[in-house]
């Protein structure tokens, strides 16, 4: 486990969730695991807070959910990205790119 | 646990077990890492069912339970609100019916405008045919225009008579401009009007009533007076004509007017005969403002050209005092709107005050409950209810009350608006649709929302600012006395305003009725006549004298006569006169009010003849034309000369003055007395042959006792014996006719008085409530006072002083506001100024007496407080 952990930036959770689900349909546990794995344990998600976010995204029509058998054989609720969700992800990713670039520029200014 | 969350927690638990933890510890860690599942689940629910909705539901259920426990409060609050909301909905329904509701079945009614002439002194809207043609040919902002004239007569279809059917004589483009689609057959076209064509279109409603929607109605002959028209089509369902309040049953080409009404065609060429209503359709995209500017600009040169032909300067100036305008026509012609816009606006103001009063009352009542519910509120706060939550709880309560009030008020308004329409109809028929439409629902909804916020906000905020401690410690706190008092002062101020208004209106009405009319209107019967056809001159004379003779034969009739213009009927007939020995200066009014009367007229009206005599039967056959003038005539035109034997010339006939009558009111009670010239009816008929039919006069009889209306059935039976073509019409007493001329004043006095009284009652309830409440709160203080020697009288004074302290600022604020507002009602006042001190004094006195009466009961209860019981209480 990495010794340094970062809290998620306000508002980025939705984008991360969309991105993870864009890779392949996933259930909540899976999404939490993958966020940790891909970020090499840097990003810590309060696991429970994932669910209100998932339901919010579903209500906005960016995700759709259905129950199917999981890798353990037990039924789990899987989330899939919708066409509208794909658009939203692209928009947020572009926005994130601009934001990160701008922050980077400022931070790299020599003192 | 939600299965989705359960899955997640189970997976985490297994991960920990796999790391070697024992199952119980693994589960504990998993739950810790996940975060409280209950909290998460609640957050998820909020996403699907917003929190406020669940809260509102909870608040409403709680409010309903609370309200059900206090039935007295519920009843009085709902009643007050029903009054406020009902009154507002009623008046708004009338505003809607008179001027907002668009004409049914008309295509794009927003594009329809009325083109009208207006004068400062009267709301006249009609135009002349030459003016219509001028506008029709030159206005660039319209695509078409029409004129119409109301006609009314008995009509006969298939041998069956239908009494007094309303119709319209309409010019060619009528249906094209309105964009109507026939329900059957065809509608009238410009070709029907170009040359007089004997065709008619009937309304859908008439088609249903007379023909049971039978298509065979097309082609059926319809006889109007002596003219037979062929029905060619039916108007669309819902269309009732363009004049609000008057439902037409058929329409005929305007060019048939002379055939229908026995006219002489003068209306086609005479620009001063303004008897047609004109409407037009705007070109798409053209605004009413632009059309109005064009109408006004075009009218001016036209009017100047016409006015230049008038030789007398005074009359020229009178004619030049008019403008032409384009008015919104979506709701039809503006006649009814112009008649009622002012009283309805003032009534809207009055009912808005009643609503404010109801809100202040509700607010006060709820505030008192906040204080009484202090403990409950403190417990809720202690359990963590936020300010917003507490305010919302009270808003939910007031919302529930507002909804109950709105439902009750809405039902009451349905009944009340019908009563008012009957009142506005003034003895005639006025077909107005007051059935609720979306505008009325929206209005009532908006009003209820206002009530909810105004009524619930103050107590909600009162609760929100209350601190937790004192109530939980069971200490009696002061409560929200300041806010509560402010609300009572507001109620008193509003009541004061309404009372001042009621006073002004009622005093105006009383003054109006005590005006000296110069007549005695009691015990006089009036009746008009209708005839199927016109009569030759000699037959007219026979009929007229037969009617007077018949009236005379009725036992109890003291005198019988007839007049072309019955005074105080609202009509006016004036003519230019030349007076022997008087030269009119330029700019001086050279007209006199006219009346053509039968012998004994002044005996019937009870007007004294001051000099000479009144007309007698011998004048009828005499070649010497005679006239009677009134005092004003003598004073203004025959100053200092003996009037008898002087000559007056009018319309090329020279009359010898044989009598001077006392001044009488002519058009209505308000207008001052003008000079007047009476001429003899039979002489008038010989001088202007063909124009004066027996139907032109109102027949009148003075009875010595009993109800004058007992003559009505007698005359109804007698008329066909006198002539088979005739029947009586609109019998009434002279006093009824006077009442009709005071419609607006009566309406304002009745409604103003009604609302003023209600306001007084509501305000008294408010005073009573707050004083009774304070007495109960201050019981131990009163006990202490009595224990240290205060007498019962001292306590009585103490409480009543409290009432007086509320009364004085309430009265002052109300009076100041009334001074500012009452001038808007000035045009309904008569004989009193808007700031009439007496009206203000009476209102203040009434308010003071009622306040003291309302304060007396709680004061007496305070004086009866048992000091020992009160002191032991806490």
Can you characterise this structure?
The complex is a heterodimer of chains A (111) and B (874). In chain A, 53% of the residues lie in helices and 18% in strands. Chain A is of the alpha+beta class. In chain A, a hairpin with a 5-residue loop joins strand 4 and strand 5. In chain A, helix 1 crosses helix 4. The longest helix of chain A has 26 residues. Chain A is globular. The N and C termini of chain A lie far apart (34 Å). Chain B is an alpha+beta fold and 874 residues long. Chain B folds into 5 domains: 46 residues; 193 residues, no CATH class; 222 residues, no CATH class; 174 residues, no CATH class; 191 residues, no CATH class. In chain B, helix 15 packs antiparallel against helix 16 and helix 26 runs parallel beside helix 29. The mean pLDDT of chain B is 87. At the A-B interface, helix 2, helix 3 and strand 5 of A face helix 1 and helix 3 of B.
Mean pLDDT across every amino acid position of chain A: 84
CATH topology grouping of chain A: Arc Repressor Mutant, subunit A
Summed over residues and divided by their number, the pLDDT of chain B gives a mean of 87
Helix content, binned percent of chain A: 40-55%
> What structural class should be given to the helix and strand makeup of chain A?
alpha+beta
The largest sheet of chain B, given as strand count, sense and whether it forms a barrel, is: 8 strands, mixed
Question: How many distinct helices of chain B?
Answer: 30
Note the total helix count of chain A: 4
Which regions of chain B are unreliable across 5 or more consecutive residues at pLDDT < 50? none
Q: N-to-C SSE series of chain A? A: EHEHEHEEH
Roughly how many Å apart are the termini of chain A?
A: 34 Å
Query: Ends of chain B: how far apart?
Result: 50 Å
Radius of gyration of chain B: 37 Å
